[in-house]
Fold:
Amino acid sequence: MSDIEKLVESNNESETKKSAVRKSRLDYFSEMVQRNLMLVLTMCGIGIGIAMGLIVRYFSNITDRQIIYLSFPGEVLLRALQLIILPLLVSNIISACASFAPGQSGFIGSRIAIYYLSTALISVGEGMLFALVIQPGSRNPGLHIPGGMGEFDEGPTPPIDTVDSLLDIIRNLVPDNLIEAAFTQYKTDYRQVVDMTNFTNENTTEKNVVVKEKLPTPTYMPGSNIMGLLVFSIVFGATCSSLGDKAKPVKDFFTALSSVSLTMTYIIMWYMPFGIVFLIAGKILEVDDLEAVVNDLSFYVVTVFAGFITHTFIVLPGIYFAFTRRNPYKYLKGMVEAMLTAFGTASSLAAMPVTLKCIGEEQVDPEIYKVVVPIGSTIGMDGAAIYGTIASLFVAQFEGIPLSPERIIIIGLTATIGSMGAPGVPNAMTAMFFIIFPAAGLPLEDVGLLIALDWLLDRFSTALNVLCDCFASANIDQLNKNRIKRMQLKKQNQSVSHVGEKTPLVKNENRKAN
Structure:
């Protein structure tokens, strides 16, 4: 073989190797896209939605009516997700609690409550730290947000006393009508008790009206009472578990209902990337003056994001590593799709089906995460705790209100309780502000400053809330596994000790033999 032929042959071999490498890389990329197709489509939907909103905002004169029409596909997505929430939530919790061994449901429930209360207190502490260090409210003396009141143009909602807010949470935990709880939730309103007296003034009799007090009166507002349904489902499932085989038909029914609900959820998820495009574009177009909002509230936004980033990449991974001794960032990577869905829908309840799917792909017991996620979607609001604390301190600094230790403690406590009672729906933080502000002596008129960017910060807050539920599921699952190991080890030790013991008969025979 000549040198030329050898050179040609070597070139052909090198080209073959290069093409094989290119093909393997292409196959790997194609396989990765296919494996994470929903995640890729969701990310593309968010990017396209932001681009569409900015392009339409700056290159066309769109009317409010046209914005409503543009947002319609996104509205359909939210309606479809809200449609499946109740059957998915109730069936998952009942089937999971019913499958627990006797006594296990109490262990899991107590650990869930302690875990979420602890992380909420940590979140409030983070919010206080960043707000007091950065001082965002002291950096904008000339702050003015045109059209900032948004939905409150017709006047703010009357403030609710802190005690009544706490009592409302307890009342919603124990609904008096299960069917009604699927459509409405309890809310305190007030009626004034007046004292009318007659007095004479220059031969004329007039009525003097004196307001003696305002009495709380029961009212019901539209929206599912998720907390009440959660409590009922937990108690119902635990009761089924205690009855054993007697409740097997009921267990089988709710297990089948859970499977059907999940299958319907997967169908809805394929519509999600399309709906998110118009959902985000519509929200960008609804803001009156985007530039003024971003410029005037820049330090406020930086402070909130500092809290979110710290909790996402340091606090939650640190807690996860302390519980499981595994790589937290690998686990976090698997939860990206759930976080993106939460960002797009601005609702932890709407993102719950995707959250269950993502956790199900990890090494977490289904019996655990099917209970933790629905409960966490209602009370696991770490993002809301950080957001609410920073917002309250921002308003206090902006108004020049002295931040005494008593006021800081009140803000922390109300933010903790308010975040755990806030519904997992869009713009839930607005209701939380009306709980924290009156308790801390902050002016309700400044809620308009916060509403201007609530559409954006609420989405990041919701994504963090969902991530907290994902980590909580893994951590509580690890606690349950450790408990099972301890019980098994205890049984083994007991069995070994029993085998090693000699019976009285054996002891007597040994004595006779001696």
Summary: The beta strands are 184-200, 205-222. DSSP finds 21 helices and two strands in the chain. Confidence is low (pLDDT under 50) at residues 144-157. The first strand starts at residue 184 and ends at 200.
